[in-house]
Design a protein that fits this description.
The chain has one domain. A hairpin with an 8-residue loop joins strand 4 and strand 5. It is an all-beta fold. The protein is globular and about 35 Å long. The protein contains no helices and 8 strands.
Length: 130
């Protein structure tokens, strides 16, 4: 059985996020943002368990907490393909997320399975300095 490739390529800065999902059906969200703003070239999504019929959505919002206006739907109706099975979203044009805006990841739990969903955002044009 081949091993999944777990290497990101082509970004300037990578940051990890976790979306904790409880066993209660519902929507679970995580906000991806930088205070200075930046372009996001892609996102890798890895759930640590399988939830049959669970789906995911990625949206760009005009505010920092994802409650304002949706500027773009970047992905929707992505199914959980299994535990530790990554989905890599590479945007054809880097998604410019200005200061005060965010990317909102939503996991829609219908299977009543608790899990963590790990996210890696690939930022362009910025580097974190020590």
């Amino acid at each position: 059985m081949p091993l999944a490739k777990r290497v990101k390529i082509g970004g300037g800065y990578y940051k990890g996020f976790v979306c904790p999902v409880s066993s209660t059906p519902g929507n679970y969200t995580t906000i991806i943002a930088n205070t200075s703003g930046s372009a996001i070239n892609g996102i890798t999504i890895t759930p640590d368990d399988y939830g049959a019929l669970d789906t995911m959505k990625v949206e760009h919002f005009n505010d920092a907490d994802g409650t304002g206006s949706c500027l773009a739907i970047l992905a929707e109706d992505l199914h959980n393909c299994g535990a530790n099975s990554s989905i890599q979203l590479d945007f054809p044009a880097a998604e410019l997320v200005n200061s005060g805006e965010c990317i909102k990841f939503t996991y829609i739990n219908t299977a009543s399975i608790a899990m963590n969903v790990y996210l890696i955002a690939e930022f362009m044009g910025m580097r974190k300095t020590a």
